[in-house]
Amino acid sequence: MTTRRIVTGHAADGRSVIVADGPVPHVRVLPGASFDEVWSTDATPEAIGPVPASEPTSAAPRIGPPPAGSVIRVIDFLPAAAGGVRSPMHRTRSIDYGIVLEGEMVLILSDGETVLRPGDVVVQRGTDHAWENRSEHPARMAFVLIDASFDADLEALTTGQELTP
């Protein structure tokens, strides 16, 4: 199920208008999951003009947000019986808000795991983690990733581990 994206803007006289309405332009399909790339910003704060200067998403794979930017994506996770797989353990230098929209997901951390259900929100703070759909039904989550940096103590702890920019 592709995500519908509605983008607003401004008419010449300042009225608010819809400038785009349709399916997201970039969907990345990986084994067991599809990523609907909804929107991305290259700066915070982002300069807002009457209409977007260009398409802010890309078909090129990217896990984390752009430096000083943000990204929102919707991910559909298949259950194992339908080809779903556990994601690899990974971390990004970002604050991520993960919202379960449908189904059930398991958040796996280095020292434990928890089951997430519709309405649950995870605030992921640059930690090593993985995702797995252990249910019998597809699951859908929305993720908002905002660029961040590790403080000096945490940077020292993570040295030697692969970090995704």
What is the beta-strand fraction? 35-45%
Annotation, overall tally of beta strands: 11
The number of helical elements comes to: 1
Shape: globular
Considering the protein shown, what is the CATH homologous superfamily? Jelly Rolls
Element order: H for helix, E for strand:
EEEEEEEEEEEH
CATH class placement: Mainly Beta
Largest sheet: 6 strands, antiparallel
What is the CATH architecture assignment? Answer: Sandwich
CATH fold type: Jelly Rolls
Structural class: mainly beta
| pLDDT averaged residue by residue | 92
**Distance N to C terminus:** 29 Å
Helical content class = under 10%
Low-confidence regions: none
Structural description of this entry:
It is a single chain. The chain has 165 residues and is mainly beta. The chain has one domain (26-158): Jelly Rolls (Sandwich). Helix content is 4%, strand content 45%. The protein contains 1 helix and 11 strands, in the order E-E-E-E-E-E-E-E-E-E-E-H. It has one helix spanning 152-158; strands at 4-10, 16-23, 26-30, 33-41, 70-77, 94-102, 105-109, 112-116, 121-125, 129-132, 139-147. The strands form 3 sheets. A 6-stranded antiparallel sheet has the order 3-4-5-11-6-9, with no helix packed on it. Strands 8-7-10 form a 3-stranded antiparallel sheet, with no helix packed on it. A two-stranded antiparallel ribbon has the order 1-2. Strand 1 and strand 2 (16-23) form a beta hairpin. It is globular. The mean pLDDT is 92.
